[in-house]
Design goal:
Layout lengths: L1 H9 L13 H13 L4 H17 L8 H16 L15 E6 L6 H14 L4 E6 L4 H14 L3 E2 L7 H14 L4 E6 L7 H14 L3 E7 L5 H12 L4 E5 L8 H10 L3 E5 L7 E3 L2 H8 L5 H11 L2 H12 L5 H13 L3 H7 L8 H19 L3 H5 L1 H6 L1 H11 L3 H27 L8
Parallel strand pairs: 1-4, 1-5, 2-3, 2-4, 5-6, 6-7
Antiparallel strand pairs: 7-8
Helix pairs in contact: 1-2, 2-3, 3-4, 4-11, 5-6, 7-8, 9-10, 14-16, 16-19, 19-20
Bound molecules: guanosine-5'-diphosphate and magnesium ion.
Length: 439
């Protein structure tokens, strides 16, 4: 999607204002980019029309180029399309909050059940899971295992009982135990069929749930529109959870859900670990779609890992271009500690899908860098200029760390590149413009 959009902005280079004529070509690129991102056609049509109308209406703003203006309009509309604000989960005023999960087979319902329980537990709520997939005994075991992993009780009665009856008993149990939130996992099918829908309706009638969340695989693309519409009409949903956003998804599903159902995406799953569930931020998703990567999520994750002072200190250094080898080491180590390298790399703008071989490569080069930084003197770490200026110092470091002089030179060059790149990134985040769009 990014490259398509980039060509859209580029077509406005040299223009003074946005006009009906000069937005025709960029809008065509935007339309194509959205279709390629697997957004459904009716949604794309409405989007392009809204953006075009607004673009022609805006006047000249001093210091703002037309391409930047169009980026802003597109970005704002994307955010609006996805619901604008973060949509919180609703909780029952009295008695247990009941969350019913629905969706096709393999989309991640069972995984989400346990993730959600952990997510709510962290907010101080007691939870109980109900195993409602009676078609595969393995599904009940899977939930039992995940439940144990997040330390949340699982109510299961086996495969002989109808889901609605399991729901009734489970809810009774939850009330008896004074549980805050009950989450019911259900069976999915490969495609929508009447049995599944009837079963869900029965369960819904029994539970009278606070939330009915449709779990949607982000890879579904434009079929998501039809899927969401059908589920919403048939059983009535209160929102959606988008899973597997860590994968190769092109983002189409995220754009269609709200538009076709009027119901927001409330949470997103970004990995197979139990911790990988987050609120859905429309603005960040828009940023991701526009090619900023998940800069904000990235910064947030980095801050979680680094101590707050460290992070602020780092930011100050970046702003003043004093980023040195100590920071470099701290930062690369923090990145490594963030767990899966692939996830972090995936959040960096311009990085596409990362292969296991690339991850191994990245980890290897991290070790090489550490070896070289370890033999630097404190002054050299704090003043990388010393190394840039002195071949003798670089030679010494190469010898002591067992690396080549070329590798040392590369490391020094990398640090200076990083200074520039981080400065640009910080500037872009403060100024609100989009990096990588050229000038
Ligand atoms: P269900 O059939 O809807 O209950 O789907 P499951 O919960 O059994 O998940 C199907 C597969 O998708 C499992 O292998 C999960 O580990 C995987 N999965 C679920 N959520 C995510 C996610 O957010 N990211 C990734 N990468 N895998 C996921
Ligand atoms: Mg399941």
């Amino acid at each position: 999607l990014t490259s398509g959009l980039e060509s859209a902005w580029n077509k406005l280079k040299g223009e003074e204002v946005l006009t009906k004529e000069n937005i025709v070509e960029p809008m065509r690129d935007i339309r194509r980019a959205l279709l390629e991102a697997d957004v459904s056609l009716p949604v794309v049509r409405r989007f392009v029309q809204t953006v075009s109308e607004q673009a022609v209406g805006v006047g000249v703003i001093r210091g703002v180029r037309p391409d930047q203006q169009l980026v802003k309009i597109v970005s704002d509309e994307l955010v609006k399309l996805m619901g604008g604000e973060v949509s919180e989960l609703t909780f029952a005023k009295s008695g247990p909050t009941v969350i019913l999960l629905a969706g096709l087979q393999g989309v991640g319902k069972t995984t989400v059940s346990a993730k959600l329980a952990l997510y709510l537990k962290k907010q101080g709520k007691s939870c109980m899971l109900i195993a409602g997939d009676v078609y595969r005994p393995a599904a009940i075991d899977q939930l039992a295992i995940l439940g144990k992993q997040v330390d949340v009780p699982v109510y299961a009665v086996g495969t002989e009982v109808k889901p609605a009856e399991i729901a009734r008993q489970g809810l009774q149990e939850a009330k008896k135990k004074n549980v805050d939130v009950v989450i019911m996992d259900t069976a999915g099918r490969l495609q929508i069929d009447k049995t599944m829908m009837d079963e869900l309706k029965d369960v819904k009638r029994t539970l009278n749930p606070t939330e009915v969340l449709l779990v949607v695989d982000a890879m579904t693309g434009q079929e998501a529109a039809a899927l969401v519409t059908t589920f919403n009409l048939e059983i009535g949903i209160t929102g959606a959870i988008l899973t597997k956003l860590d994968g190769d998804s092109r983002g189409g599903a995220a754009l269609s859900v709200k538009e076709v159902s009027g119901k927001p995406i409330k949470l997103v799953g970004r990995g197979e670990r139990m911790e990988d569930l987050e609120p859905f931020y429309p603005d960040r998703m828009a940023g991701r779609i526009l090619g900023m990567g998940d800069v904000l999520s990235f910064v947030e994750k980095a801050q979680e890992v680094m101590k707050q002072e460290d992070a602020e200190d780092l930011q100050k250094k970046i702003m003043s271009a004093k980023f040195d080898f100590n920071d470099f080491l701290k930062q690369t180590r923090a990145v490594a500690r963030m767990g899966s390298m692939s996830r972090v790399l995936g959040m960096i703008p311009g990085m596409g899908k990362v292969t296991p071989a690339q991850i191994r490569e990245a980890e290897k080069s991290l070790q090489i860098m550490e070896a070289m930084i370890e033999v630097m003197t404190p002054e050299e770490r704090e003043q990388p200029e010393l190394l840039a200026e002195s071949p003798a110092r670089r030679k010494r470091i190469a010898q002591e760390s067992g690396k080549t002089e070329q590798q040392v030179s590369q490391l020094v060059a990398q640090l200076f590149q990083m200074r520039v790149r981080m400065k640009n990134l910080m500037g872009a985040m403060e100024g609100g413009s989009v990096p990588g769009l050229g000038n």
